[in-house]
Amino acid sequence: MKNEPGTAVYDQELRLEAYRFRRSFPKHFHEYYVVGYIEDGQGALICKDVEYALKKGDIVIYNPGDIHSCAESGAALDYWGFHIPRETMLDLTEELAGQRVLPVFSRNVISDQEAAWDFRALHQQIMRGSREFDREERLLLLLSRLLRLCGQPFEALPAAGREAVERACAFMERHCGERITLERIAGEAGLSKSALLRAFAREKGVTPYHYLESVRIGEAKKLLEQGVSPAETALRTGFSDQSHFTNYFSRFIGLSPGAYREIFTEKERLSHGK
Predict the structure, then answer these.
(1) 54 contacts 109 by C-beta, under 8 angstroms
(2) Using CA atoms, how far apart are residues 73 and 54, in angstroms rounded to an integer?
(3) What is the pTM of this model?
(4) Which terminal Cβ of the chain has fewer Cβ within 10 Å, N or C?
């Protein structure tokens, strides 16, 4: 197999590296945690003298010091991964478990659709340079899922109440035009970030980020109905750029912002007999 150059992006806010490549590796180990994903292809992984047959959709996890090697076996491997430094992992597990300890993952290869979905979505965001706070949501959800599946057990934090979630919702509604963070929302609710995610899932059925985006879309509709341009609307409703706004609006409303605005422009023309 001919190894191909990989691509890598460091996320300054999440303090981890995302990468993608097609290649095999000789026996080696890392000083950091690795969470990987097989986007396509097949391979043979040997980790701590146990052999695994890798296939599309598998999640791969290495603890620091896990000796492993990987080779293709058939279709070329398209491998996506995260390098998570120990200090970053300490902060994440403290947030999730209330304990500043390094976890030990008991399995190196797992197949789980929910974890795979979160992994792929997060990886794509980091690789394209997104700065939206749902990156942090997805990282916490992914790690929480992996810890439940194959990590050391930890005690769940107490369930948060409905009032805390409503405080978070009210804050997002007031500040939907600003660039706000998950930490700021959690602080307004009086919860840790992981407790906020669990409470939101229980009370609203969505994450805080998806709730915020829905609020922003509602505000955007009002502005477009008033004749505000799509570019100005994107800016005033807190979207990172007009492209992101257009894609999100079109997916939820079924029309582009420009087409939606035109409905009300035409209505205004007709009302004046023009």
Answers:
(1) yes
(2) 9
(3) 0.79
(4) C
DSSP state of 240: S
For the chain, helix, strand, coil in percent to 5 are: 45, 20, 35
The two three-digit tokens of residue 64, written as one number: 């620091």
β-strands 50-54, 25-28 pairing: unpaired
CB atoms within 10 A of CB 247: 13
Contact 259, 235 (CB under 8 A): no
pLDDT tens-digit map of 182-225: 999 999 999 999 999 989 888 888 899 988 988 898 899 889 98
Taking the C-alpha atoms of residue 59 and residue 92, their distance in angstroms, rounded to an integer, is 19
HSE of 205 in the Cβ direction (CA atoms, 13 Å)?
1
Q: Which residue do the tokens 């097609």 mark?
A: 22
Query: CA triplet 196, 197, 199: central angle to 5 degrees?
Result: 65
The neighbour count for residue 31, using CB atoms within 10 Å, is: 9
Cross-strand bridge partners of residue 70: 25, 45
User: What is the chain's Cα-based Rg?
Assistant: 22
C-alpha 55/C-alpha 127 separation (Å) is 23
Contacts (Cβ under 8 Å, ≥6 apart) of 89: 32, 33, 102, 103
Residue 158 DSSP symbol: P
Residues 131, 36: Cα–Cα separation, whole Å: 22
Per the structure block, which two tokens stand in for 10?
A: 């460091």
